[in-house]
Design a protein that fits this description.
Elements: E1 3-8, H1 13-26, H2 40-43, E2 48-55, E3 60-70, E4 73-81, H3 90-104, E5 109-115, H4 121-129, E6 133-134, E7 147-153
Parallel strand pairs: 4-5
Antiparallel strand pairs: 1-2, 2-3, 3-4, 5-7, 6-7
C-alpha cells in the first residue's frame, strides 16, 4: 500500500470528522479526566505539528502529531489509523515519519501517554517495536491507572 504523509496546517472537513471519531473512540476507554487527546483547535496550535496520512486515492487513513513539551522534548499526540485500515502498517509509517521529523529538527527525546487498558494493546506493541520504554509521567501528567507513559531518546 502506498501512502503519503504530510504536515497539516489547516482543518478540512474530512480531517475534522476523522479526529472527532478519534475523540469518540476514546470516550469508553477511561473517565474524562484520564483522556488526553487533543481536539482540532489544539492540534492546529503553533506548538503542535500535525500530520495526515492519505492513500493513493487521497483518502485520509491516519494521523499523528508532535507537541512541544520543553526544548528538545516533544510528545506524540493523536495517533490514529482509520478502523478499516488497521493492521496494514499505517501507524508504523506515521510513527516513523514523526520520529524522522523530530530528529531533523534536533529533538532529543519524544514521549507519549496512551491508555493502559487492553483496548490499547496494539498501540503498546507498536511503541515497543519502535524502541519506546516505560517512564514516569512527564510534562503536566500525573500518575493515573488509566495511563501508560512511554519515552524514546533520539540522541545520545
Amino acid at each position: 500500500m502506498t501512502i503519503g504523509i504530510d504536515r497539516v496546517h489547516a482543518a478540512t472537513p474530512d480531517l475534522e470528522e476523522f479526529l472527532a471519531a478519534h475523540l469518540l473512540d476514546m470516550e469508553s476507554t477511561a473517565p474524562p479526566e484520564s483522556r488526553h487527546a487533543f481536539d482540532m483547535s489544539r492540534l492546529l496550535a503553533p506548538d503542535v505539528r500535525l500530520f495526515a496520512a492519505k492513500d493513493r486515492d487521497d483518502e485520509l487513513v491516519g494521523t499523528g502529531a508532535l507537541a512541544a513539551l520543553e526544548p528538545g522534548h516533544e510528545e506524540v499526540k493523536s495517533m490514529r489509523t482509520a478502523p478499516w485500515m488497521r493492521g496494514r502498517g499505517i501507524g508504523s509509517a506515521i510513527l516513523v515519519a514523526l520520529l524522522a521529523d523530530a530528529r531533523a529538527r534536533g529533538i532529543g527525546r519524544v514521549s507519549l501517554e496512551t491508555g493502559a487498558s487492553d483496548y490499547f494493546w496494539t498501540a503498546h506493541r507498536l511503541y515497543a517495536k519502535a524502541g519506546f520504554d516505560e517512564c514516569e509521567p512527564f510534562g503536566a501528567y500525573a500518575e493515573d491507572p488509566h495511563s501508560l507513559f512511554l519515552t524514546k531518546q533520539l540522541t545520545d
